[in-house]
Specification:
The longest helix is centred in the middle third of the chain and has 25 residues. The protein is about 45% helix and about 15% strand. The strands form 2 sheets. Strands 3-2-1-4-8-9-7 form a 7-stranded mixed beta sheet, sandwiched between helices. A two-stranded antiparallel sheet has the order 5-6. The chain is built from 8 helices and 9 strands. It binds uridine 5'-triphosphate (UTP). The site of uridine 5'-triphosphate has 23 residues, from helix 2, helix 3 and helix 5.
């Protein structure tokens, strides 16, 4: 049976500060997917909403009191970003599912037919980290890669605390102490790993690898189970 890998690709990765970095990143991402397809892997890519999700939620926040309605705006943004990745990969001939699934069940089904499946959010109440962990469980992957824009999980936010301590390895329960477990974030709020995703990974005994997705070499090493710079979280 083909090896299945699932990546939660943070939406911020599509919009780096300099456009030049974006072009290089897309080229390297394409090369990585060509390589993984060549190895016979199946890859689920769950794309985050990034800036458009946050912007859409901010615009509506003063007019919408129900958090779940705001979540729907975030979900729409994740699907735009998923479509960007889907079409870029399709253009270079990768066997990518032509549909953006709206559930992890459907995503897992499509992964049996295609080398790559791109999707965004599913339902209100969690982020795409939780979707990716759910897809990993459904599709029979042993873990899930969280590709974000920090190098490691830290004991506090490294953007606010220059003395934040990083971790190269953690148990899932230690990660839960840092990020929280099970409690949904507010619409558009961010954490290094969504607490709902931590809960799902605990329930399904899945491992996690948190890696800086701006560096495709680190990402590929994490996907292939090789030594990588980042945080490895054991079930
Ligand atoms: P993201 O998955 O993009 O959140 O979802 P994030 O952690 O901010 O990730 P980055 O910044 O892209 O890396 C954006 C918002 O969309 C809604 C939530 O409101 C979330 O905060 N959402 C997303 C859902 O309600 N359900 C989903 O399945 C996915």
């Amino acid at each position: 049976m083909a090896q299945v890998h699932v990546i939660a690709l943070g939406g911020s990765l599509l919009r780096p500060e300099e456009e030049e970095s974006r072009e290089m990143w897309f080229e390297q991402l394409k090369q990585m997917l060509i390589h993984l397809e060549g190895l016979g892997c199946r890859v689920g890519i769950v794309v985050g909403g990034g800036a458009p999700a946050r912007e859409g939620i901010d615009i509506a926040r003063n007019h919408v009191s129900d958090e779940r309605r705001l979540d729907e705006i975030g979900i729409a943004a994740t699907r735009i970003n998923a479509t960007i990745i889907q079409q870029v990969l399709s253009q270079i001939g990768i066997d990518v599912a032509p549909e953006i699934p709206h559930s992890t069940e459907k995503g897992a089904e499509l992964l049996q037919e295609h080398a790559v499946v791109c999707m965004g959010g599913t339902l209100p109440g969690h982020t795409t980290d939780a979707v990716a962990v759910g897809l990993a469980a459904e599709a029979g992957a042993s873990g899930c890669i969280i590709a974000t824009n920090v190098s490691y999980v830290y004991d506090s936010d490294p953007r606010e605390n220059p003395d934040a301590i990083h971790f190269e390895s953690l148990t899932m329960s230690e990660l839960g102490d840092i990020c929280g477990v099970g409690e949904p974030l507010a619409a558009g709020a961010s954490a290094v790993v969504d607490p709902v995703a931590v809960q799902r990974a605990m329930d399904d005994s899945l491992g996690l690898a948190i890696v800086d997705g701006r560096d495709i070499e680190r990402l590929e090493n994490a996907i292939l189970g090789q030594r990588f710079k980042g945080t490895l979280v054991t079930p």
